[in-house]
Design a protein that fits this description.
single chain, mainly beta, two-stranded antiparallel sheet, 16 strands, about 45% strand
Length: about 290
């Protein structure tokens, strides 16, 4: 385990947030986004902020997918498997009188169907009574990396089997730290609500769709703090590594911008709107496809 990750305390969400490459032309992309006022948004920090939300969401998604297999098998009294985790992942189950622990081991490296590359271990524990309408899932990490980012921390998910719409829903609180390959470190924390609106129980990962909302805080290089809050629910289709729609509001100090993730297309683009009303198409995260 690396021992120099910065651990800062905050409350907020795990949502998916922002990363900017300011221009569709990589060679012409500036390093700083000017908002037209006294505040500026640094591209690299916004990019790492957005990626931190991807990391949080994927960790929680993996745990909930593993839990869902157990839940469906128990409540439907039949065999069910999910095809989301590939064969390179090893899952070991430890059962006590009242609980189960799942050790989800990605070994030295394992690629998920959506292209994300993970290594190390996610530990998941919960009460083994699958007949309960809600259950608490506890997460911890061991020597865990996500696309080359070293991640540590914990999370808790209150999972409801069926909400008022008849869909599984979860309320998550998480605190993570990350170290990027270039040595930058950050802390990211928050709470989020996620409704599983399509694909639950189908056994095919590619039709899974979620609506996500919440609020979170990201603290990065030079203690730059970004507060992020969902204005319109964010739609995540598991077959796409990007959010496909929804609006996120991002505040740094006294400056607030909004990020619109689009009309449902699976791409790395979003529309960033500045305080003066001007808008710009930007790239999200480190990916350009």
């Amino acid at each position: 385990m690396k021992n120099y990750l910065k651990k800062l305390n905050f409350t907020g969400i795990l949502l998916l947030a922002i990363v900017l490459n300011v221009s569709c032309n990589k060679e012409e992309s500036p390093e700083i986004i000017e908002t037209g006022e006294t505040e500026t948004f640094e591209v690299a920090q916004l990019q790492a902020s957005d990626e931190s939300e991807l990391i949080s969401e994927e960790i929680l998604n993996i745990g909930e997918d593993v839990y869902a297999v157990d839940e469906i098998q128990a409540t439907s009294k039949g065999s069910y498997i999910s095809d989301y985790l590939p064969d390179c992942v090893t899952i070991t189950t430890v059962v006590t009188s009242s609980s189960k622990e799942k050790i989800i081991d990605f070994g030295e490296g394992c690629e998920l169907p959506n292209g994300n590359f993970l290594s190390g271990i996610i530990k998941l524990s919960y009460l083994k009574d699958m007949e309960m309408t809600t259950n608490t899932l506890s997460f911890s990490l061991e020597n865990f990396t996500f696309n080359g980012v070293y991640v540590a921390g914990i999370a808790t998910v209150e999972r409801m089997r069926s909400n008022e719409n008849g869909n599984p829903q979860s309320e998550a609180v998480a605190n993570f730290t990350g170290e990027w390959p270039d040595g930058d470190t950050a802390s990211f924390s928050g709470n989020r609500t996620r409704e599983w609106i399509e694909g639950f129980g189908s056994g095919f990962w590619g039709d899974n769709v979620f609506l996500i909302s919440g609020k979170g805080i990201y603290t990065g290089k030079y203690d730059n703090v970004f507060v992020k809050e969902t204005i319109s629910p964010l739609r995540r289709e598991l077959s796409c590594r990007f959010l496909v729609s929804g609006i996120l509001e991002i505040t740094r100090n006294d400056t607030t911008v909004s990020l619109d993730f689009g009309d449902g297309s699976c791409d790395s683009k979003g529309i960033l709107t500045y305080p003066n009303g001007e808008s710009e198409e930007i790239f999200l995260r480190r990916f350009k496809n």
